[in-house]
Amino acid sequence: MTIILNAEAMQRVLSRMAHEIVEQNDPIEGLILIGLQTRGVFLARRLASRIREATGRDPPTGSLDISMYRDDLNLRGSPPTVKHTDIAFAVDDKSAVLVDDVLFTGRSVRAALDALTDIGRPRRIQLAVLIDRGHRELPIRPDYVGKNMPTSCREQIQVRMKEEDGVDEVAIEKL
Amino acid sequence: MTWTRKHLLTIEELSAEEIMLALDTAASFKEVSTRTIKKVPALRGKTVVSLFLEPSTRTRVSFELAAKRLSADTLSITAQASSITKGETLKDTARNIEAMNADFVVLRHSAAGSPKFLADRLNASILNAGDGAHEHPTQALLDAFTIREKLGRIAGLNILILGDILFSRVARSNIWALTKLGARVTLCGPTTLVPAVFRELGVTITTRLDDALCEADVVNLLRIQHERQRKTLFPSTGEYSRLFGLSRERFRLTKPDVLIMHPGPINRGVEIASEVADCPRSVILEQVTNGVAVRMAALFLLNGVQNRIAQGVPPETLQPRENSVSPPGESDLVADATA
Questions:
Q1: Which of B40, B70, B289 is nearest to A85 (CA)?
Q2: Which of A15, A47, A88, A94 gets the highest tally of CB atoms within 10 A of its CB?
Q3: What is the SS3 assignment for B96-140?
Q4: Residue A74, C-beta contacts closer than 8 angstroms, at least 6 positions apart
Q5: Would you list which residues of chain B are within 8 Å, Cβ to Cβ, of chain A?
């Protein structure tokens, strides 16, 4: 196992991503952050607090569960645990940033696009990911990337976050 | 915890963890019904057949809505409008449905054990929507869901089930679910309708209704199942109402934050006074709302297991341990499942 981001590096990466989001979404009104369950939700909250520090504005943050939208429900080893979708504000005409921990095949993002557009019609949807590991199976690209990490399919990226795992780090493991 | 059952036949066979998983999953599905677009693609391309051989409004509509909100195709067969009136057996009806490649069969039948009978013979997943006086698992799940949502917990609560226990599948499924989740369940009603043998299920039986009402956190009222009673078990509806009905006066004895529940259909003025049924402590219609979420969760969980079987996971490794204790008071009610 190799650590590719430690706690300090993760902080720096998130600060940079927050500033990039602010830069691309000027004026900041209308910006909303939607985290994909589970770790995307924590990442979205952390980005939101950095955006608040930078702009004084607090972008609304919601969580999205995509297990009802996956196209590989019948291929996965075990049925997914369905977590909550909690978006307590209207997404119509907003500038939405989907936040996920790892971008891999792009299938989660496709499901997230379906899930989000069933809830409303944002004016624009962007994508922020902590790690882009390549191997896309769909024409999907991120707008904000924490770290590009070329991987082989026999490797696994482990994102650990304080809120869930007690520690902030990203590791790469051989399967 | 992973769901491993292909069928939802009884609450009796479920563990507390399985019940909690179903409730947690239902909580996520409840949000779907609050959207403008009340539909998710989780069961796209699957077929759900409702086979209702006893009258039902709520359960049938609720299952059908749940299936539709998961994007499944649904069709509904009722006894009066089917070939069952021409003498076809349950097994043959079901095999014909299966020949059309249905993935789920939702069965309501007057014979206890009929869902198990179908589960042993068909490839489809069977969901028990009420079998005689045996079980009504999704009703118990939605009742538990409503209690947990309203009061924040189930363990340690005093739950009074009042009315016709003997003939009630809702009572049996509720007793299994609520005792497994750690609630203290008390039964009350006419002694002819509350058999002492139910004590073996870990519940208290009382005839002191007023005391029980004072202590109850939840009062679950049951309708008198006239259709199942073959002989007279209490003198009159009027007397039942006087002695066991939740009147305005009796309602005053309850705790200020009591939950009044009823699986429906309610008989106003018999087991519940109109004012009580419509008061703010009554969650009867919220139970109906939650029923859709619970049934979506049930279909979703069973579908996950179906998909794993289709991938070649052997079904026996999916099935948790068998629990073969049959509910008391059932033996004299079991009819021939093929009737």
A1: B40
A2: A47
A3: HHHHCCCCEEEEEECCCCHHHHHHCCCCCEEEEEEECCCECHHHH
A4: B307, B310, B311
A5: 2-3, 24-25, 27-29, 31-32, 35-37, 39-42, 70, 297, 300-301, 303-305, 307-308, 310-311
Structure tokens at B319: 């099935």
Residues of chain B with pLDDT under 50: 321-339
Count other Cβ atoms within 10 Å, centred on residue A12.
11
pTM of the model: 0.87
Among A67, A78, A85, select the one facing B31 at the smallest CB separation: A85
Strand partners for A173: A156
SS3 assignment, position B53 = coil
Kindly determine whether residue A84 and residue B301, on different chains, have CB atoms separated by under 8 Å: no
Q: Chain centroid to CA A29: how far? A: 20
Q: In what order do the strands lie in the sheet with B73-78?
A: B73-78, B47-52, B104-109, B125-131
pLDDT one-digit tens code per residue, A24-63: 998 899 999 999 999 999 999 999 999 999 999 999 999 9
Q: State the fold for domain A8-153.
A: Rossmann fold (3.40.50)
How many contacts, defined by CB atoms under 8 Å, are there between A and B?
Answer: 60
Long-range contacts of A52-61 (CB under 8 A, 24+ apart): A54/A18, A54/A19, A54/A22, A55/A22, A55/A28, A57/A28, A57/A29, A57/A31, A59/A28, A59/A31, A59/A32, A59/A33, A60/A32, A60/A33, A60/A88, A60/A89, A61/A32, A61/A33, A61/A34, A61/A35
Residues in chain A with CB shorter than 8 Å from the CB of B308 are: 77-79
Residue pLDDT, tens place only, A84-138? 999 999 999 999 999 999 999 999 999 999 999 999 999 999 999 999 999 999 9
Confidence at residue B221, expressed as pLDDT on a 0 to 100 scale:
97
Residues 6+ apart with CB under 8 A from A9: none
Strands B47-52 and B73-78: parallel
Nearest CA in chain A to B21: A81
| Planar angle of CA B42, B75, B312, nearest 5 degrees | 45
